[in-house]
Design goal:
346 residues; alpha/beta; D-Maltodextrin-Binding Protein, domain 2; 2 domains; 5-stranded mixed β-sheet; 11 strands
Length: 346
């Protein structure tokens, strides 16, 4: 099993899905627009940027957007370090982008739901439900989970899900085998019978149950709140503030339109997935549209901004991925001045 998993994982690392955009783009394009690099991925977090692009809003406010699609948060962070983009849509991997590059988190774009742990039908884990009475719908206990192999994507909210799950059912992280793997590879490997538990985000978590008969045993939203954030490069925060404010206004504008019409939101999600070479199903997209809530201006104002982000930093510090002082540095880089300026909050 280990040879198979390692071989597949190496291929996944060598051949990332995407990675577009040129280095050292000029700040002002030939037609007088301000050029900015916008980082997205071929998942839900890219749909808003696609919608803004298709509506032509960026040009209307004087922006020339270089839309860059990266395969995951790690490759996006590498591009951030290389100075390739100015503002990005990102999940938990933003912790490392902030710490390693002195970037800023400047606002939320979504409340993330749908991260799910799955087992196969017949797993002994399904015999233990509600071991922790605080989480009566969660399956698993020390007897059924100890010694199991868990497939997950490292440095993401799925990593957090794995740790939160084990902690809630009283299993040490040292008492399971954890195999890091990207989402698509994880599905392929788990489908061959390797591993005992697999973690998937949407849209995988909406389809693998019906496709393979896999059974959900826990979700991240069972335990904590998770958000997707807008991350801005240090140079852009200091020297392209007006452009960042202009683009963020478009993000909130898109959120308002898409949250007001979930059928439109689902259709745009299908369009985005198909644009990136993935099969897309409208029914699954509708489910994902309900699970992953875009942050409108009113939602942003009402949120306890910084709390989910700080919790993620504390989580990574707890598991030893970052030092305590790095967690504190990260928290200091979660700033609210940009979104408050965008939304007119005093």
């Amino acid at each position: 099993m280990k040879r198979l998993i390692v071989a597949v994982l190496v291929l996944a690392m060598v051949f990332p899905l995407f990675g577009q955009g040129g280095k050292e783009a000029k700040e002002t394009s030939t037609d007088g627009l301000t050029k900015i690099g916008v980082q997205i991925q071929p998942y839900f977090n890219g749909m808003v940027a696609m919608y803004i692009r298709d509506k032509g809003w960026a040009e209307e406010v004087g922006l020339d957007v270089d839309l860059q699609v990266y395969s995951n948060g790690s490759t996006a962070n590498e591009a951030l370090a290389a100075g390739l983009w100015d503002i990005g849509f990102q999940g938990a991997a933003y912790v490392f982008g902030v710490i390693n590059n002195d970037a800023k988190l400047v606002g939320n774009y979504e409340e993330t739901r749908g991260d799910t742990l799955f087992v196969r039908e017949g797993s002994e884990i399904l015999k233990a439900r509600g071991f922790n009475p605080t989480y009566p719908e969660v399956y698993g206990d020390p007897t059924t989970v100890t010694g199991k192999t868990i497939i997950y994507a490292p440095g993401t909210s799925l990593h957090q899900l794995v740790i939160e799950y084990l902690e809630r059912i009283g299993v040490s992280v040292d008492d399971v085998s954890k195999v890091p793997m990207d989402y698509q590879t994880g599905e392929q490997v788990f489908a061959t019978g390797e591993g005992d538990i697999a973690a998937f985000p949407t849209p995988w978590s909406l389809t693998v149950g019906e496709k393979y008969g896999w059974v959900p045993i826990a979700t991240l939203s069972d335990f904590v709140m998770s958000t997707g954030d807008l991350i801005v490069a240090k140079d852009a925060y200091e020297n392209k503030r007006e452009a960042m404010v202009s683009y963020m206004k478009l993000v909130y504008r898109a959120a308002e339109e898409l949250e007001a019409d979930h059928d439109l939101k689902a259709r745009m999600l299908v369009k985005w997935y198909e644009e990136n070479g993935r099969e897309a199903d409208l029914d699954s997209a509708r489910q994902e549209a309900k699970l992953r809530i875009l942050i409108t201006p009113e939602a942003q104002k009402a949120m306890d901004y910084g709390a989910p982000e700080n919790a993620i930093a504390d989580f990574y510090s707890y598991i030893g991925n970052i030092e305590p002082e790095q967690a504190e540095m990260f928290k200091g880089n979660v700033v609210d001045d940009l979104w408050k300026e965008v939304l007119g909050v005093q």
